[in-house]
UniProtKB/TrEMBL annotation:
Keywords for the protein's UniProt record, in alphabetical order: Membrane, Transmembrane, Transmembrane helix
Protein name per Swiss-Prot or TrEMBL: Sodium:calcium antiporter
Gene3D superfamilies in alphabetical order: NCX, central ion-binding region
Keyword hit for Glycosyltransferase: no
Phylogenetic classification of the source organism: Bacteria, Pseudomonadati, Pseudomonadota, Alphaproteobacteria, Caulobacterales
Family annotation (Pfam families): Na_Ca_ex
Residue span, Sodium/calcium exchanger membrane region domain: 20-159, 185-325
Any one cellular-component term (Gene Ontology): plasma membrane
Main location: membrane
Transmembrane annotation, as ranges: 20-38, 50-71, 83-108, 120-138, 144-161, 181-199, 219-242, 254-276, 282-301, 308-326
GO biological process: intracellular calcium ion homeostasis
InterPro entries registered for this protein in UniProt: K/Na/Ca-exchanger (IPR004481), NaCa_Exmemb (IPR004837), NCX_ion-bd_dom_sf (IPR044880)
Location(s) in or outside the cell: Membrane
Length: 327
């Protein structure tokens, strides 16, 4: 009987804490995936003779946004637009203030690259476009098609410009440069898979925990879901910062923010029109625009995201989180 009682207690404990176990498993997969993705993407860039910036913006930047895309698609199908918008807007704010801030604390990020400066401008314009659509009340299918068209045009132009005017690359560790193309693609694929699995586990557990405390869907989207789906970007950025690969780190975050607006909202809007609540129009999207403009000013004026700026970003994010939990 004693053994049965112990088993029952163990099962009861697991049942009561299953959401926390999902969170722990998610974090583990995210960091494993981040390491694999950066390793494979860097090697792939060398084998295909592409710049770190291109790989950061596409394979890494868009790849790490797959959790946001999956969550937004599920939310659209379940008719919860606040989760869709909150996820994208909250992720974009977290990518700059939280993740860029943490990465730059580890290693200041050089942003003098013409490619970085160009893409920061695209991020700002995309955010302005989202604010305009929000004041109109939402995103319909025509808007979604235009957004996806803009994303495709952006990708083509980046590829053409980078091939025409390649930027100098930093040295990469020999174990990465010696990796074969198929091994590099395997690292990228397995890294992306681990990131998706990890993000799904984390969001599942975190969302259930938040709802147990009676938090609204908008706040869940802006906080737990946004941060949870941004953890792939965090993992990739921290690992890239440790490897002193600023192009991968910044390209990842800027590419993710562009894809979040043009790609995720574009794809989701094709499936179901997205109504944007007034609170996003009046508060959160203007904050996201302010954050994007601030990052742009730092890039253009200082040419890098240093540790002092990083501390300012982190303090601003802490203030934003406190504001969300108070309203």
């Amino acid at each position: 009987m004693g053994g049965v009682g112990v088993i029952d207690q163990g099962l009861n404990w697991v049942s009561a804490h299953v959401d926390y176990l999902w969170v722990a498993a998610g974090l583990t997969f995210l960091f494993i995936g981040g390491e694999g993705l950066v390793r494979g993407a860097t090697a792939l860039a060398r084998k295909l003779k592409l710049s770190n910036l291109i790989i950061g913006l596409t394979v890494v930047g868009f790849g790490t946004s797959m959790p946001e895309l999956m969550v937004s698609l599920q939310a659209a199908l379940k008719d919860t637009p606040d989760i869709v918008v909150g996820n994208v807007v909250g992720s974009n704010i977290a990518n700059i203030l939280l993740i860029m801030g943490m990465g730059a604390l580890i290693y200041p990020m050089d942003s003098k690259s013409a490619g970085i400066q160009r893409d920061v401008a695209v991020m700002i314009v995309a955010t302005i476009g989202l604010l305009v659509l929000a004041y109109r009340g939402g995103i319909d299918r025509l808007d979604a098609q235009i957004m996806l068209g803009c994303l495709i045009a952006y990708l083509v132009s980046v590829y053409v410009l980078e091939r025409r005017n390649p930027e100098p690359e930093h040295a990469v560790h020999s174990s990465v440069t010696e990796m074969g193309i198929f091994m590099a693609m395997a690292w990228v694929s397995l890294g992306l898979l681990a990131l998706v699995v990890g993000a799904d586990s984390l969001v599942k557990g975190a969302t259930n925990i938040a709802r147990d405390f009676g938090i609204s869907e908008a706040v869940i989207g802006l906080t737990l879901v946004a941060v949870g789906t941004s953890l792939p970007e965090l993992a990739v950025t921290l690992i890239a910062a440790l490897k002193r690969q600023s192009d991968i780190a910044l390209g990842n975050l800027i590419g993710s923010n562009i894809f979040n607006i043009l790609g995720i909202l574009g794809i989701t809007g094709l499936i179901a029109p997205i109504a944007i609540d007034a609170r996003f129009t009046q508060v959160d999207i203007p904050i996201a625009l302010g954050v994007a403009v601030t990052a742009g000013l730092c890039v253009y004026i200082f040419g890098k995201i240093g540790r002092l700026i990083a501390l300012g970003f982190l303090a601003a994010y802490a203030g934003y989180m406190a504001f969300l939990l108070m309203i």
